[in-house]
Amino acid sequence: MRFLPDKFTTALIAAIIISSFLPVRGQYAEWFGIATKIAVGLLFFLHGARLSRDAVVAGLVHWRLHLFVLASTFVLFPILGLAAGWLVPGLAASAFYTGILFLCVLPSTVQSSIAFTALAGGNVSAAVVSASASNILGMFLTPALVGLLFAVRGNGVSLDALESILLQLLAPFILGQLLQPLIGNFMRRHQKPLSLVDRGSILMVVYLAFSEAVVAGLWHSVSWHDLAMMISVDVVLLALVLLITAYGSKWLGFSHEDQITIMFCGSKKSLASGAPMANAIFAGQNVGSIVLPLMLFHQIQLMVCAVLARKYADRKLKLEAAEATKVTV
Fold it and tell me: Which residue, among 155, 140, 129, 118, has the nearest Cα to 65 in the 3D structure?
């Protein structure tokens, strides 16, 4: 069962299938687009309101760990993404390469990074800070890196895209942070029902993006070869980053707990941030093909990291049992 997609991933797949056969069109697409923007603004407002400042301050002492995670997220990934375009034949011309590069400049996840770190016995407080810092900095770094990487390829980010990011994503996030002392505890206590807003807004973005892509002829212009190549690149990207973060943190002398935190936080990419950002940054383009590599990477990282976290947890239990036996003897 551990290899089966979760309910949210199943819902994402359903959104793609429905949009492929029943895409929203015309005036309805415009109305749905306005509703999606409102939902995304609410999503980033909730992100800002839930982020505890106490947790951020408590974990700042692990600056070397956070620097390693940020370097993995915003330096290592983009370098590997560019290298893939140069080394993999035909990838740079693929409809999905823009999505792969976009994936590489996104921030880390928050919930799954912390959950896997806790399950594996890593440094949870450091994971909270690293994942949170990655998402905060990602509000600025992701658009900047998109502009940098796509300038290398002869493209760029328009002023309209930057304005959309500021108004639709950054402004609600800052408002949520300003109100966090007043409503933060309420938001964290009711995180489960409020998560419906998170997931609902992402589903709206995915349905709208793939509807526009289907209307523009996505499935007629994309080959099975492109799909297979994109999935392979996703898998290799994740494998390389997991290996580099695991052995790199060990080589630099981090504790076992910190190594776990670096590996799980430094290898993730956030669908919750990525789908809305793609909708804002690439407005008017084929957002469906840009989001698809991220959606697949999201599911791959969940499956692989779940297995790794369980192995770390089992190893920890065995070590504790061995220590207890020594004490008893």
Answer: 129
DSSP 8-state class, residue 76: I
pLDDT of residue 82: 92
Give the closest residue to 119 by CA, choosing from 315, 312, 326: 312
Q: Find out whether 178 and 40 touch, Cβ atoms under 8 Å.
A: no
Q: Where are the alpha helices (DSSP H) in the chain?
A: 7-21, 26-50, 53-58, 63-71, 77-87, 97-104, 111-120, 124-152, 159-164, 171-189, 191-215, 218-221, 224-251, 256-266, 271-281, 287-328
Residue range 7-317 forms a domain whose CATH class is: mainly alpha
The yes-or-no verdict on residue 242 having pLDDT over 90 is yes
Which of 21-30, 256-265, 276-285, 319-328 has maximum average pLDDT? Answer: 256-265
Q: What is the DSSP letter of 165?
A: I
pTM of the full predicted structure? Answer: 0.76
Cα–chain center distance at 154? 25
Token pair in block for residue 46: 């909730």
**Do residues 30 and 178 lie in contact, with contact meaning Cβ atoms separated by under 8 Å?**
no
Q: What is the pLDDT of residues 160-193, one digit of tens each?
A: 555 666 666 677 877 887 887 888 778 777 777 7
What's the Cα-to-Cα distance from 251 to each of 240, 243, 246, 300, rounded to whole Å?
A: 16, 12, 9, 27
Q: Look at residue 61 and give its three-state secondary structure.
A: coil
290 and 282 in contact (C-beta within 8 Å)? yes
The residues spanned by each domain of the chain are: 7-317
Q: How far is CA 35 from CA 40, 44, 57, 82, 147, in A?
A: 9, 15, 36, 35, 27
